[in-house]
Structure formats: C-alpha cells, structure tokens
Amino acid sequence: MEILQTQVAIIGSGPAGLLLGQLLYKAGIEHIIIEQRSADYVSARIRAGILEQVSVDLLEKAGVDKQLKEFGLPHTGIEILTGGEKHRIDLSGLTQGKQVTVYGQTEVTKDLMQAREEANLTSFYEADDVKVYGFYGKPYISFNKDGKFYQVNCDFIAGCDGYHGICRASVPEDKIKTFEKVYPFGWLGVLADVPPVSDELIYVQSERGFALCSMRSEIRSRYYLQVPLTDKVEDWSDERFWEELKNRLDKESQENLVTGPSIEKSIAPLRSFVTEPMRFGKLFLAGDAAHIVPPTGAKGLNLAASDIAYLSDALIEFYTQNSEEGINQYSEKCLKRVWKAERFSWWMTHLLHRFEGESEFDLKIKQAELAYVLGSHAGQTTLAENYVGLPYEINNFQAAS
Ligand code: APR
Ligand code: PHB
C-alpha cells in the first residue's frame, strides 16, 4: 500500500479533468489525475468538435492553444437546411463579431495530454476500483494499479469522471437531485477523409430526419444521421450511409458531396441530464459527470470548459487568497449557465429532428417555428448568441462577452 498526499485529486482524464489539471499546475497548485482507462484509449476517443470563443480563451490561458491556433478553423456562420433550402445564420454579424472554432475534442485531449507529459505531471492511468471517501470531512481516494493499493489524501476531489463515473454515484441519495430527458433516436456518426461538402456546418431538418454535415479539417469530414435507437452500426454500410445522407440534402450539396471509406462509425444515444447541486462538501462535479446535453447545439465540451473555468478560479482563490467565496458559489454559477445550454440544446434537438408519433399538426408548428426563427432578425440573433456561447464572468478569467 502507498499513501499519497495532494491538494486536489482529479478523477477522470477527459477534457474536464485534463484542463483543470493544467490550470491548477499553472497556478502552482498540486494535483494528481486518476483515470480508469489507458492513455491510448483516452486520446483516441472521437467526440464533437466546436469550440466557443470562451473555451478557446480558456485553452489559451492554460497554455495549450498552439495546435488549436494553427489548425483550428474559425467559423463565422452556420447553415440550416429546411424544406430543401439552405439559410445562413451569420453568427458573427449577429453577435458583434463572435465566432466558433472547428477543432476536434480528440485534438483538445491530445494537446492537454502532451502539455501534461511535458510538465511531468502525475497521472495514474488504468486505475481500478477507484473510490472516493470523506468528502463531507477529510476527503481521500483509493484505487488499485498494477496489483498495488493506493490511498490519496487530499483537500478537494474534482469529479471529472463523466456520465458513468463513480463520483456522482458516491453522493448520498438525499443530497442530490437529477433531471433527465432521453430522446427516442440516436446519431449515427461517420468520420471520413474527404473534403467537407461546404465551408460551413449544415444542420439539416428533413422529412427523412435530421442530418449534420460537419468537419475536422479541409480534408476530413464528420457527418451524422438521425437513426432509430434500434439500429446497429452493422446495419449501416458506407454505401447506405452516403445514400441516406444524400437523400436528406439539397441539390447543391448532393452535387458537392464527396464520399469515401469511413474511418470511424458509431451510434450515440441523445440525452439531456442535469445534477443539482454540483458541489457536495469537498467534492465538486464538473463536465459530463454533472450534466449531459444532446449534441445538436455542440455544447458538451464547452460546458465542461465553463465548469472548469469556475472551478479552477474557485480553487485558486481558495489557495491564494484564503477565500471560500468561489467554492461556495461554484454550483450556483455553473448551473445557471448549464441550464441555459440545456434549454438551447433541447430546443435545437426538438426543432430539427423527426419524432415518432408526431402529428401533422406538431410538424406544421415546428416548421412554422423554424420559418419564424430563420425569417426574423430577433429569431436568428437568439440562435446565434446561444450557438457562439453565452458569456460568463469570473474573477481571474476575463471571458469574451
Ligand atoms: N475512475 C476513474 N476515471 C473514470 C471513472 C472512474 N471510476 N469513470 C470514468 N472515468 C473516466 C473516463 O474513462 C473518462 O476518461 O473519466 C473520464 C471522463 O471523461 P469524459 O467522458 O470525456 O467527460 P468530460 O471530461 O466531462 O468531458 C466532457 O466529453 O462526452 C463529451 O460531450 C462531452 O464534450 C463533452 C466532454
Ligand atoms: C461535430 O463536428 O462532431 C459536431 C459539430 C456540431 C454539432 C455536433 C457535433 O452540433
């Protein structure tokens, strides 16, 4: 048995845990990361790829924006395709110049892992049987690695262990409330080394269901199709995928679509989920451990980043100014932004997908709502300001607003 001591013990080495580690390191606060999977597994996971400006700013503050600045693609607009016609939402024009950056979460994770390696920071990968204890008093963690038992004594625990993690599950039932909505369809995603169909993302509302044309670079595309939850990846050959995508697109996009062999194909369910509160004594939940959004608004990674902005700031304030103010406000501040992003993601999902059992009336109302949004400056502005990311303000981090 080995006993370790640190200031902040971070559970989970996804973007939330890694970013927190990097920001704490920069501020001279001791921490370690404990992750149940291997480093190779963590750095290969394919996830979404849209960064709000505030997330880009935070990565810059963490000193991990070199690749992002070089390879990230700034986007000043998105297209919405409905009734066979594309409508551009001028994100920048509608939000005083704000934009989003297309840069894969896989790359964000790799950049953070590399920075960690360069700084020689401690991570325990492939940790088994991770457990958290004593977070209403003296917190500590235990885990096994390579047949050895470890105990980590710490001041705080950051639960960055995703939706299926153990941190949220360790909170006594009477201290936690969860809110959930599960959607009756999934997204079939394909990654392929083909040039994107368009310079900008296209969100597609069609009779045949939702589709999304996204990208990772000028030569790598990411496409999605709404599919029934009963579908299996094996049901979808590449040929069938491209055929169905074409069927959901407009004429111009059909002509521009370049197809090719998929390099990744998977089906993800859609879920909205929020945990209240997000702090339990000395245990903080952040990122997917605390909330899930359906990917339609591209908010998952950005919400994880804003939690970490609040949490890192609160911890830095605690250690440098001996103030508990940030810690005490953590949950409330996060949840305000989380619920707004939940609403936006739910709304985008609702508006753009076909739901089984939807009546013709429901469909007409939805089409009218979309026509209103697209045809109104106010409607477009609402969409744009949510898409580029709502502002947040914290003491040591000046968010773009
Ligand atoms: N012990 C240690 N690590 C764990 C445990 C455990 N019991 N359970 C889960 N983990 C690890 C997972 O293996 C994963 O590497 O915690 C990490 C959580 O990472 P993510 O799921 O990527 O969550 P987060 O860092 O909050 O990132 C949020 O990921 O799912 C997307 O849309 C989401 O983009 C958002 C981002
Ligand atoms: C992606 O590129 O994977 C992506 C982009 C936008 C979304 C969801 C996913 O809304």
Task: Summarize the amount of helix as a percent range.
Answer: 25-40%
Q: Give the helix/strand class.
A: alpha/beta
CATH architecture of the domain at 2-73 and 104-180 and 271-355: 3-Layer(bba) Sandwich
What is the terminal separation in angstroms?
49 Å
Number of strands: 21
The CATH superfamily of the domain at 2-73 and 104-180 and 271-355 is FAD/NAD(P)-binding domain
Read across the widest sheet, the strand sequence of neighbours is 7-6-15-16-17-14-18-21
Q: What low-confidence regions span 5 or more consecutive residues with pLDDT below 50? A: none
- The CATH class of the domain at 2-73 and 104-180 and 271-355 is Alpha Beta
CATH topology term of the domain at 2-73 and 104-180 and 271-355: FAD/NAD(P)-binding domain
What Rg do the Cα atoms give? 21 Å
Approximate strand percentage: 25-35%
Give the distinct bound molecules. adenosine-5-diphosphoribose, P-hydroxybenzoic acid
- Can you tell me the overall shape? globular
Mean pLDDT: 95
Biggest sheet layout: 8 strands, mixed
| DSSP summary: helix tally | 12
